[in-house]
Amino acid sequence: MPVNLPLPHAADLHPVAGVRIGVTEAGVRKANRKDVSVFLLDEGTSVAGVFTQNRYCAAPVQVCREHLAGGQGVRALLINTGNANAGTGADGLARTRATCAALAQELGVAPTQILPFSTGVIMEPLPVERITAGLPAAIANAQADHWLAAAEGIMTTDTQPKAYSRQVTVDGKTVTVTGISKGAGMIRPNMATMLGFLATDAAIAPALLQGLARELAEGSFNRVTIDGDTSTNDSFIVMATHQAGNAPITDWNASADAQALKTALQDVARLLAQAIVRDGEGATKFITVQVDGGQTEEECRLAAYAIAHSPLVKTAFYASDPNLGRILAAVGYAGIADLDQNRIELHLDDVHVVTQGGRNPAYREEDGQRVMKQSEITVRVNLGRGQASQTVWTCDFSH
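Below the sequence we write its predicted structure tokens.
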């Protein structure tokens, strides 16, 4: 079961003007399962994306990059689950392009205006005929309020859909931010192993959108890890339809309203990323790892991920075993060459475990065990080297 992850409700997911979503059952891999989704975008929508850094990336990732670089204006997203179309070579590229061409023909746009996404089993041919046969039904199903259906339609090993929505006021106009994500296994940043789609009706200068997508990913999907593996299909797409009626945002620091919108975007992205960890395969605990006192953010990140990736740390948390030397050992091998171990402080929630590199005289093992039995735990490490800090989110390893 997911760790303290509430089910989303359709009524809580606000439609985004300029985006319609259709979902159908095409039998991509299994019958009677939502597995093909289309996002239909009004003309003029700005789209940006970030993708996996795995060099062995899937065919849809390669085609997405090509189409975004072409700059023709994206008019639709095509997403299938059940088949990742990864490890499929030239044939996989041809099959991805065939699905783009089929949807483009249905919509009367160019194939390069379609962004394709696939998730599921690797090294199997994409069933193009089933996907294209399902497109008319998906298009006919398209409605502005189908965000929850889409969240269900992109699931693989997820145990539940993941979706969040926010509304803020910008220039006296109500602006909406809504997003969905999927992921439960093969999760490690670079950019994070998942699919994520985030849309807003705010008017945002197109030149800002690619930087925004990177920044949102950096503060959310690039701060999660479940099992330390980077997938072949990671994609995170940000869409701005410009239909809310606000004056276009050209500088995020220009007004309090602009900053409020950015905060809403960051909140939704962060919640979607954390939902992936909460629904991690076999996860029973949600763990925040916060590293403070670094000279740079990069060394804080190194220490945080050393802790979050360690199988010994993760299994200790599953067993509620306060074998906390495992955390200290992970910090020690994180790659900070001139780390002074005598300056390290360690807390588990409110329990001060280590001071000046050694066991806190006031620490009692039963206090550590009390915290480790919780379903949500915060590990705080202070390196005693400076003012930088970083936070990542992970889970335990169960059977």
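The mean pLDDT is 95.
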